[in-house]
Design goal:
Distance between the termini: 116 Å
CATH superfamily of the largest domain: Immunoglobulins
CATH architecture of the largest domain: Sandwich
Structural class: alpha+beta
Helix content: 25-40%
Radius of gyration: 37 Å
CATH topology of the largest domain: Immunoglobulin-like
Order of helices and strands: HHEEEEEEEEEEHHHHH
CATH class of the largest domain: Mainly Beta
Largest sheet: 6 strands, mixed
Number of strands: 10
Shape: globular
Strand content: 15-25%
């Protein structure tokens, strides 16, 4: 009898042990499920092994987005110094039965640059049949820094004069006068067509430097124009036209810039090119 009671007690104890063990395992599994559910609610997502310890790539898409070109054209703010009278000559002249327009693309005052070797721009309305001379002198100096003939353009248009091509470097605080002369008759220089302007290099203001660092390439012409740097604004917008000739917005912006300084005839040329897609 005692032996039977011992066997029954042992079986009961075993059954209770198995029951409590199963309950413990179930509770642990349920706890893990609740933890994972809580993590998901909090936005904590398990990371692959190769991503552990790495920071999330926040803002990647924003940093890769390209800025769109400004809708409005650059607004040129002339420097608050000096008197009008920087532009020389320019206009349309008759040569025989031809009417030829020659312009230096600059405002009618001393215009500024921060570049040591900026690019100057000029316009010719018809293909050149006559020599064109370029002269650069220091204002109030009698000896020119440069006297040379430039290649004759085969098409009408706006053309660059890169001072780096002539090894000319501008000093800060010095005014330079540059001339283009179309020579129909070397024996009758009174018939020359002359166009020119004055340029002065200045030190880069700190405010301009900080704005340029933050600007996209499409915004740079606007930054220069707003700072009164005519030659740099014109160079920046002309570079955009050269690099993206199929984008009509940049020609419109250059035309607007030229219109602001009284170069309406050249602005109309740019607008026609924008319409025809040339």
């Amino acid at each position: 009898m005692k032996r039977n009671l011992f066997i029954i007690g042992t079986l009961i104890t075993g059954i209770l042990f198995v029951f409590f063990l199963s309950a413990s395992v179930a509770a642990e599994a349920d706890g893990k499920t609740n933890i994972e559910t809580t993590k998901e609610k909090k936005g904590i997502v398990p990371q692959p092994a190769d991503q552990k310890g790495k920071a999330p790539l926040e803002g990647l898409e924003a940093s890769e987005q390209k800025s769109s070109p400004p809708v409005s054209p650059p607004i040129y703010q002339p420097p608050l110094r000096g008197a009008p009278g920087g532009r020389v000559g320019g206009g349309t002249r008759g040569i025989g039965e031809e009417l030829i327009a020659l312009f230096a693309l600059a405002p009618n005052h001393v215009a500024l640059t921060v570049q040591e070797q900026p690019t100057l721009y000029w316009y010719l309305s018809k293909p050149a049949k006559y020599p064109i001379e370029l002269t650069i002198i220091i204002e109030k100096d009698t000896h020119p820094l440069l006297e040379t003939r430039i290649p004759l353009p085969s098409q009408p248009g706006i053309y660059p004069l890169r001072l780096s091509d002539f090894d000319i470097r501008l000093a800060t605080g010095t005014q330079y006068r540059w001339f283009l002369v179309l020579v129909p008759d070397p024996n009758r220089r009174s018939r020359d067509i002359v166009a020119g302007a004055i340029i002065e290099r200045v030190k880069t203001p700190e405010t301009l430097s900080s704005r340029l660092l933050k600007a996209s390439r499409e915004e740079i012409p606007h930054v220069y124009a707003g700072a009164g740097m005519w030659y740099d604004a014109l160079m920046a917008i002309s570079n955009l036209i050269a690099d993206t000739p199929d984008n009509p917005a940049f020609r419109k912006h250059r035309a607007a810039l030229l219109e602001q300084v009284g170069l309406s005839a050249v602005a109309q040329y740019d607008l026609k090119q924008e319409v025809t897609g040339k």
